[in-house]
Design goal:
The complex is a heterodimer of chains A (201) and B (432).
Chain A lengths: L1 H26 L4 E3 L4 E3 H18 L9 H18 L5 H15 L5 H22 L6 E3 L1 H30 L4 H18 L6
Antiparallel strand pairs in A: 2-3
Helix pairs in contact in A: 2-3, 2-5, 3-4, 5-6
Chain B lengths: L6 E3 L1 H20 L2 H19 L7 E4 L10 E9 L6 E8 L2 E9 L4 E8 L4 E13 L5 E3 L2 E10 L22 E17 L11 H7 L7 E9 L2 E6 L25 H18 L3 E6 L7 E4 L2 H13 L20 E6 L5 H11 L3 E6 L12 H22 L3 E4 L4 H10 L12
Parallel strand pairs in B: 12-13, 12-15, 15-16, 16-17
Antiparallel strand pairs in B: 1-8, 2-3, 3-6, 4-5, 4-7, 7-9, 10-11, 13-14
Helix pairs in contact in B: 1-2, 4-5
The chains are: A mainly alpha (201), B alpha/beta (432).
């Protein structure tokens, strides 16, 4: 009896191995390539996006959060970061940036230099995360694409840095912040209305 | 009427913009400039991507494929043109439904990128199916997917070099590359005999004459064998095209495009044999067991090799297989080379019939190396039964005098072994 069950087990295992081999065979890519391109693997883009995201988390001080509630938030941030690396198409990078902003809100106001650095790495995370979302891990990315994206994003980065400097100067010199609060509200509503037409994956 | 929008914000773009808006508002109402600016950055990026998104569609074209060389590479040119403002185009390559890779191409200018497809298949093949999607200026917006473009081409079989090939039982004509048994000129020494009417004066062997008849009472001439050519009929069995995986033989699932089928092996084998004979000055014809149409009659020269290669390339299973009542008629004395998988008995029956009426018949087994290790249960048993029946049929053919060669590994050696059996006497292929 035990012999028969042993034979059955071997058959089951060999059947499973056969099915796995079949799946591997069926999923194998056929041999074709585009020539004459300088490319990097898609996973490199994901790793780069992950590194930038980790820098943002460090810059926002998640590693300094103490237990117990702080540790929970830190773990949530790490989870979001991992999700943004593994499933970049799902838009976790936006949620991660939101969490980073909320974390900064809980800290004392950032100085000029820390804010400038955080803006820089947050922008890098956003650009690389958006690129990773369009790049399957097994795909190849022409090296010119990330360079073009970074080059094209410098205006937004400079604008954000200038905005940060100006806003900090205004808050330091002016007594009341009511005016810029209304301006921020109007800008946010206008941008959201302009930017959010029907979305598509 | 406004044209349909072709570019849209992605999920990443949407969540990023929403997160930015929330942060901007929270920062504004909390009086935190740093938080508000952190929110303004994604909003700016999203606004830039959406307002600067391209208006048109991505143009995609796949140019005609070059004829492949002997390395099995097919080349075509992929042309991609993205509208102004697009940063990249994601190009997806497929072949016969299987993935071939994805590349994110920079799209700042019209691109012409060489596409190289490595194929082991011959005949009419799909070079590639290409899909594309444009990526907006900040990678936060994308275009609708472009309609896929497909390109097919005809791949001629590449002939492998063969060292030596067997000859038919009878040779024809008075010219060619093979020595015949008939008296004539150009072949090996046949005999030395006394001069007789009809002998040419330049055939007189003065050395022998001086030795045998010093007084010149008798003149001796050297007799030679005539030269002759072989007539070879290649018979390809195109009724079935099976791959290495027996589960595809029922036709429910396609053979992978990087697996050679039996017809690919048959095309290559037939082209190789044809080239070997045609280079030797012989005449080669082609017939197909799978179709009822006029065969390509035996001929010689480079043009005949081109005709055979093209005819082989367009050979493929056509409709329901027809049962032949009698085997195709072939030129008398021709060497018959049958290329088949011998999975049913029709090709074997035809080979046996040709052998019985005196042709020398070589059966070339073109079944590719099978992958059986992943089969289990009924699939394994069915494959085993089919293969046992096939082995029996090949053994029967061997008993009938049909020489069986398997076209795997080094078929040139097997053909050379068959050819060496001819050399015991001139002018004969099979000394039986």
């Amino acid at each position: 009896m035990s012999g028969r069950s042993g034979v059955g087990g071997v058959a089951l295992v060999s059947g499973a191995i056969g099915k796995l081999r079949t799946l591997r065979e069926e999923g194998r890519a056929v041999g074709m390539s585009l020539e004459g391109l300088r490319t990097v693997p898609g996973w490199v883009v994901r790793v780069a996006a992950g590194l930038a995201g980790a820098l943002v988390l460090l810059g926002a001080g998640f590693h300094r959060l103490g237990p117990p509630a702080g540790a929970l938030v830190a773990w949530l941030a790490v989870l979001l970061w991992a999700a943004s690396v593994v499933r970049p198409r799902e838009g976790y990078v936006g949620v991660l940036l939101l969490l980073v902003g909320l974390r900064v809100l809980a800290l004392a106001p950032l100085g000029v230099l820390p804010l400038a650095a955080l803006l820089l790495v947050a922008h890098l995370t956003l650009v690389l995360g958006a690129l990773a979302a369009r790049t399957p891990a097994a795909a190849k990315v022409e090296a010119a694409v990330p360079l073009r994206l970074l080059r094209a994003g410098w205006r937004a980065q400079v604008l954000a840095q200038a905005l940060a400097l100006a806003a900090q100067a205004v808050t330091v010199t002016s007594a009341g912040g009511g005016v810029w609060r209304v301006a921020a509200l109007a800008a946010a509503v206008a941008l959201v209305l302009v930017v959010l037409p029907p979305r598509r994956r | 009427m406004t044209p349909p929008r072709r570019w849209h914000l992605t999920v990443v773009g949407t969540t990023t913009v929403l997160a930015g808006a929330v942060l901007l508002l929270v920062g504004a109402f909390a009086g935190r400039v740093d938080v508000a600016v952190l929110g303004a950055l994604p909003l700016l990026a999203g606004a830039r991507d959406l307002l600067g998104r391209p208006a048109g569609a991505v143009d995609l074209a796949l140019g005609p494929a070059d004829r492949p060389g002997g390395d099995g590479e097919v080349r075509a040119t992929l042309r991609v043109e993205a509208p102004r403002g697009a940063v990249a185009v994601l190009v997806g390559l497929h072949r016969e439904g299987l993935p071939g890779g994805e590349v994110l191409l920079a799209a700042d200018e019209p691109r012409a990128v060489p596409l190289v497809v490595r194929t082991v298949r011959t005949g009419p093949i799909e070079v590639a199916t290409v899909e594309a999607q444009g990526v907006g200026p900040g990678a936060l917006s994308v275009s609708d997917a472009v309609d896929p473009v497909t390109r097919t081409t005809l791949v001629l079989p590449a002939a492998a070099p063969l060292r030596d090939v067997p000859l038919p039982t009878r040779l024809r004509g008075l010219t060619g590359a093979h020595g015949s048994r008939r008296p004539g000129e150009g072949g090996d020494l046949r005999d030395v005999h006394a001069f007789a009417p009809g002998d040419r004066l330049r055939r007189i062997d003065w050395r022998v004459t001086a030795h045998r008849s010093p007084d010149l009472a008798e003149l001796y001439v050297r007799g030679e064998h005539a030269l002759a050519e072989a007539v070879v009929m290649l018979v390809v069995d195109s009724r079935d095209e099976v791959g290495p995986d027996p589960r595809t033989w029922a036709g429910l699932t396609a053979t992978r495009p990087d697996d050679p089928t039996s017809l690919d092996v048959a095309r290559q084998a037939a082209a190789s044999v044809a080239r070997a004979f045609l280079r030797g000055g012989d005449r080669v014809g082609l017939d197909d067991l799978g179709v009822l149409r006029r065969p390509l009659p035996p001929g010689g020269g480079r043009g005949q090799l081109d005709r055979i290669s093209h005819a082989l390339a367009v050979t493929r299973p056509e409709g329901a297989t027809r049962h032949r009542i009698r085997s195709p008629r072939l030129p008398s004395g021709a060497l018959v080379v049958v290329f088949s998988t011998f999975l049913d008995d029709e090709a074997g029956r035809a080979a046996a019939a040709w052998r019985q009426i005196g042709h020398r018949v070589v059966a070339v087994d073109v079944l590719p190396d099978l992958r059986l290790d992943h089969l289990a249960g009924r699939d394994a048993v069915a494959s085993r039964l089919v293969l046992v029946a096939r082995e029996d049929q090949l053994a029967d053919l061997h008993d009938l005098g049909v020489e069986v060669v398997r076209w795997q590994g080094d078929p040139a050696t097997a053909l050379t072994a068959l050819a060496r059996a001819d050399r015991r006497r001139p002018g004969a292929g099979v000394p039986r």
